[in-house]
Structure formats: C-alpha cells, structure tokens
Amino acid sequence: MRRLAGSHSAVAGGIIVAMLLIAMAIAVLGVTPYPPAEQHPESRLQGPSGSFLLGSDQFGRDVLSRALDGVRLSLQVSVSAVAVAAVIGSTIGLAAGFFGRWFDAVTMRIADVFFAFPAILLALAIVTALGPGWRNTAIAIAVVYTPIFARVARGPVLSLRTREYVEAAEGLGFHPARILVVHILPNVAAAIIVQISLALSWAILTESSLSFLGLGAQPPQASLGLMISDSRALATTAWWNFAGPAVIVAAAVIGFNLLGDGLRDALDPAQENR
Amino acid sequence: MPWRYVLVRLITSVLTLLGVALMVFVVLRLLPGDEITSTFGTETGILTDKQIESLRSYYGVDQPAPQQFLSWLGNVVTGNLGLSVRSGTSVGSLIRDALPVTVELALLSILIGLVIGVPLGVLSGARAGTRGDATIQVFGLLGLGIPNFVIGTFAVTLFASWFHYFPNARGYAAPWEDPWLNVQQMMFPAITLGLALSGTIMRTTRSAFLETSSQPFVRTALGKGLSARRVRYVHILRNAFIPILTITGIQFGYLLGGTVIVEQIFAMPGLGRLVLDGIGKREYAVVQSSILVIAGLFVMVNMLVDVLYARLDPRIRYQ
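^ inputs. structure came back:
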C-alpha cells in the first residue's frame, strides 16, 4: 500500500477514478443538477453559466447532468463487462495453465483466433449480430476481454505449477480446485488486478466508441460517445457540447490506465514498465 | 533466415485465419433474418412460399450450416466474395477499391507514430527523472488516453466547420492520381491515429532505451570517446529497436480498428467505412468479407513482425 501511495501515476489515476465514482454516485442517486432528459426549450444551446455549468444542448438539456449520467452508464457497462471477463477468463486461464495438455492447447488456439481481430472490430461485429444497445455493448466487451484474461492468468501458472509447494500440495492429495484457489490464485492475483484496471480503461474507450458510431446506447439515453457524436452538428455554434464529454471520456480512459500502471509498479515490481 | 520457423509460422497463421473465418461466419449467422429478408426487406412478406423456396436455394441458405460455411470458404479462397445488392457490384471490387485507402492510412499513421514517438522516447529516456522527461511522459499519456474519435471530431470541427477546409469532401484521390490532394486528405486522419500510436511508441522506446543504456557496451562506447549523441542514436537505439518493432506490430491491430472510426469521421472510403456502411445497410456479405480482410491483414502483419524479429535478433532461437 505504501508503494502504491508512492507512485505518482497510481495517485493521479486513483484521484480521477474516485472522481468518476463520485460522478456515478451522483447520477445513481438522482441528484444531478437537472434530470438528464429534462428539456428546457426556453434555454437551448446556452453556453456554460451558473444555471448550466457545462452549457445546454439543442433541446435545452443540461450537458453536465447528461455527462454525469453518461459516466454512470459507461462505468456500469465497463465494470459489469470486465467483471464477467475477469471471472470467466481467469478461471479458464488458470485451468488451462494447470491442467495443460489438450485443454491448454485448445483454449489457447481459440484465444489466438480472438487475438486475430482488432479488438474494436470484434466488438463491432458482436454488437452488430446482437443488435445495438448498451447491454449488448457490455456483452461484446466481455467476449473480447475473456481471452485476454485467460492469457494473463495462464502465463504465471505455467511456472508456478512446477514449484515445490504446489508439488507438495499435489503430493498430499489435495483436490486440484483447492490447489488452484489456495496455492496458485494468490500468486496470479496481482497480474489479474493490474489487467482489470487496464481493461476498464479500454472498456470505457470501447463503450464510448461504439456509442459514438451509433451502435451502443441509443437516444434518448445519455452517453458520452453519443454526446460527442451529436456535438458534430453543433460545432460552430455550441463548442461546449463537445468539450465537456470529451474531457470526461479522456480523463476516464487515462485515469484507469494510470491506476493500472501504478498498480503494476506497486504489486508486480519484477515486471518492467511497458 | 530460419526457414523452418517461417514455415511453421505460416501454417499457424493459415489455421488462425480459418478460425477467424469460422468465427465471422458463426457470429453473423446469429443475425436475425437471412440474405432474403435483408435483400428484400419488408417485401419478403408478399413473396409466395414457392418464391421464398427458390430464393433460399438460389442463395444457398437451404443447405446445412457446415455446408454453407464450406461453400462460402471455397468462394472466398477463389476470390468470389459475393455480390453487394445495393451497389450492384461484386464485394471483391468494393474491397479492392477500399483496401488501398485503409493501407495507406495505416502506413502513414505508423510513420507519424514512429517519427513523433521514437525521438521523444529517446529524449525522455536520456533525461529520465527530469522535468523534460515528465512533460514528455504526460504528452505520451494524453496521446494514449484521448480517444481517437475525440481527436478526430475535434480536427474535423476545427477545419471543416470553422475554416471550411475539408479536402475529403472531394472524394478519395489516389496518390498517383493527385498526390497533393491525397496528402491533404490523408494528413489529418493519419495524425489522429498517429498521435495515439506515438504515445505507446514513446513509452516503449523510453523503457527500452533505459534498459539498454545500462549495458556495458554503452559504457565502452562512451569510454572510447564517442559523442553522447552518437551513442544514443546509433548504439542504444539500434538495440532498443526490437521492442519498438514488436509494439508497432501489436499496435497495427489497434490501428486497423482505429481506421474504422477515423474513416467514418473523415468520410474516407476505406475498409472500415465499408464495414460500417454494410452494417447500416444490412449487407452482410460486405461486412463478412471486409472483416475477414482486415483480420487477414492483421494476422499477416503479426507474422511478418515475428519473422523480422527472428531475423533482427540472432539471439532469438525457435525450436
């Protein structure tokens, strides 16, 4: 923990992530300055001011309230997708590394096929097949990230399973599941935690990219990608429709990335900083 | 050259591509409707049973799925990618037109990424721990973290809406037709993608540089009186080149994904646009083949990087 606090990137990333969580809490509790979908026809396209801190859009909706709700949606999609991917992917990876043989060979060849797609393109294809919407975006992100977690978890298991203490546990006749959970998982956890933070960064990027392309959250749902996409038509008259959401998306992506870097430095000092 | 290794790598690449084809086929098979409903839309409802049956056999959708897959695969291998009903041309010719745009965009982006990223990484590594290093690192982080659709939207807004400068509106000009227009069209999309890439390349260069500079041969070179500059750019950079090459190869996939978004923003008629247009118009023959081509490019580049890697670093041996 002390090493974590000593890392500049972990601290900066932690602060940004904490702010995102606060933004999410505000949206979840419904205490945004205005309801995100509330229209104020008399004050359309107002610049940032006391009553609309980040300005208002073409329907007179408050950009700040919508952005906060967008953060909520983004985190909801990303966290659920990454959680599913981390649990399923890590389990497969642990098992593949531990049992080896054909199971390992088959799962890793399947993972290779997943890695042959640019990630965003794979997500795009899955969302196309399932239909647009934020739920399907979450499913697509989970599918794309599962093999990545599998590979991250598998790597260290390969070397761990030849260690004496693991062989001793096997010799004592413990059930493989017990050995995996009690003896191996704690040593792989650091790598998985780091990967979770980096995955969240990428998931937020993907969620907003897909909704930017019109394949993620559908209007009138507020989403950061959609807001940026909509702002294109208003570019010359109302820059604040772009500025607020753009800064927030970038901060979210950078925040989780920094946190991941910091966690890697703190938890996994052996690994070089790439 | 380890020919045996090249051969093994070639075979695994082909197997991976087969898996990719299978996955694209399966994923797009999940879609509601088939070629008939996507071609005729709501008019499918007024077709008689007999007509539907003959259409099903015409499109081959009455065959069992494995057989459909094999015949599709056979067509792909022989270069017959099907027909785009909306545009009335073959998917193959659509891809032939779109491919050069995407490849040029990707190559230019890599070039920009390297031109910005490598010198910055070396500077940052050489001044590790100073304020200059911190500034460059922040730049790298911004490049890495600002989504390309944000940078792209910003660039389009700035130039198209405010300065009324939008060279892409005039249709794509190949570099051999109108080089000047081509440069104008490619410049901003390539910078958009290149900036993000330069962040990653900068970080890799920096850490590779730091790692290499602690090696004894660097001390020897400095000790025999070579200038710091020469040691930095010739001795260290040459050895730091392998991780840079690797990360560039890995990032190529990211780049191909990025072209989907950037082509859309800048209205460029590349492969990514083809995929998105196909999705919008429900032309799955187009989507299927374009995705396959992009994944194929990616697998090929990864193979090239692996082989180059083996060639560049004689210490690397493959069994």
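The mean pLDDT of chain A is 82. Residues 264 and 270 of chain A are 9 Å apart (CA to CA).
thumbs up if we can close this ticket
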